[in-house]
Known about the structure:
Largest sheet: 5 strands, parallel
Helix content: 25-40%
Number of helices: 5
CATH architecture of the largest domain: 3-Layer(aba) Sandwich
CATH superfamily of the largest domain: P-loop containing nucleotide triphosphate hydrolases
Structural class: alpha/beta
Radius of gyration: 18 Å
Amino acid sequence: xxxxxxxxxxxxxxxxxxxxxxxxxxxxxxxxxxxxxxxxxxxxxxxxxxxxxxxxxxxxxxxxxxxxxxxxxxxxxxxxxxxxxxxxxxxxxxxxxxxxxxxxxxxxxxxxxxxxxxxxxxxxxxxxxxxxxxxxxxxxxxxxxxxxxxxxxxxxxxxxxxxxxxxxxxxxxxxxxxxxxxxxxxxxxxxxxxxxx
Length: 197
C-alpha cells in the first residue's frame, strides 16, 4: 500500500503495522480493498462491486506489482473469499500455495485447465443468479493473474501445441479469460492481474 506525501515524490510504503492501517482495513466492507492512505490519513480504496470489478497493476520489474497483488488478495481472503492464483513464475505468489480457500497453479497446462474450469464456474454462477435473482450467497472468487501479459502469450502457444484438428483455433482458456473480464462482476468473480511495462 502507498501513502502519497508530495506531488513530486514517490509515495511512502505503508505497512500493516503502521498506525491506523489495520483499523482502516477492518472498517471496509467485504467488497472494498485498501490501496493506500491520503496524506491526511483517509483510505484510498477500490470497491470491486460498484466501482471496478477487476484491477490491473503494471510496473517495471521489481516495481511492486506482485506485492500489490498479494496485498489486495489477502484482504479478500480475510473476508472469506476464495482465490485462484495463476503464477507461472512459481515465486511471485508462493505465499498462497497451500492456503485454505486457494487454488495455486504454476504450470501452463494447469493454468489452461483452471481457466477453462473457471468458465464453467462462471456459467454455473450466472445460472444461480438467473434462478435466485441475486449473488448474496455466492462466495467471492478472486483470480490472481501474475504476469498476465507473459502468461497470455504462453497460453496461446500452449494451445497451438496441444490442439487437435477438430478443436477450435482459439484457445478456450483465452476465451474463458475474456468472458471472466466481461461477466465476472455480476457473479462476484474478480480478476487482479499483474503485468510488466
